[in-house]
Every structure is written in C-alpha cells, then in structure tokens.
Amino acid sequence: MVEDRDGLNPPDGRTGLQEAIERVAEKRAGAVLTPSRSMISPVPQEYNEIARKVESAGGFLQIIDVACAASRDEPH
C-alpha cells in the first residue's frame, strides 16, 4: 500500500502517486485504488493522463466510492 500525502499538488508532483504507478510498472501491484476521482486530479486531462500511465504500465485505476460502499454495508 502506498499512501499519497502530497495533498493538492498536481499529479506529476505527488511522490505517493508516482510510487504507486512505479509499483504497477514493476508488477508489484495491479491497480491504483482511490476513494474519489478528484483525489487523482479534479482536472479531467490530468486524471486521464494518470489513467493512461497506469494502464500502459499494465494495471488499472479504480475509484472506490467509500460512502456508497458504506451504505451497502449498513443493515436495512
């Protein structure tokens, strides 16, 4: 697991995100998981570029909607 703590920096300036992409390229990981698209970047072009990098490294970028997942786990 890699935790990105570089906050609101652009994706290319975030060491945790770059490390996650490197792990995918090295086959030490198969995916980059994030709780929201905006945590990669709120800018569509930047998000798409990161998705392309992850996919060209052989992995995939997965958004896990934590709020949605939590509501599914609550008893009804």
How would you sum up this structure, described in words?
Helices cover 42% and strands 11% of the residues. The chain has three helices and two strands, in the order H-E-H-E-H. It has a two-stranded parallel sheet. The longest helix is centred in the middle third of the chain and has 13 residues, at 44-56. The radius of gyration is 13 Å and the shape is globular. The chain starts with 14 loop residues before the first helix and ends with a helix. The model has no long low-confidence stretch (mean pLDDT 87).
What is the average of the pLDDT values? Answer: 87
Low-confidence stretches: none
- Calculate Rg over CA atoms: 13 Å
Q: Which series of helices and strands comes N to C?
A: HEHEH
How many DSSP E strands?
Answer: 2
SS summary, helix count: 3
Helix content: 40-55%
Overall 3D shape? globular
* Beta-strand content: 5-15%
Distance between the termini: 32 Å
Q: Mind summarizing the main beta sheet?
A: 2 strands, parallel
Oligomer classification: single chain
Q: Give the strand order, joined by hyphens, for the main sheet.
A: 1-2
- Structure class: alpha+beta
Task: Give the secondary structure arrangement, pairings included.
Blueprint: H1 15-25, E1 31-34, H2 44-56, E2 60-63, H3 66-73
Parallel strand pairs: 1-2
Summarize the structure.
With 76 residues, this protein is an alpha+beta fold. It is 42% helix and 11% strand.
Features:
76 residues; alpha+beta; two-stranded parallel sheet; 3 helices; 2 strands; 42% helix; 11% strand; globular
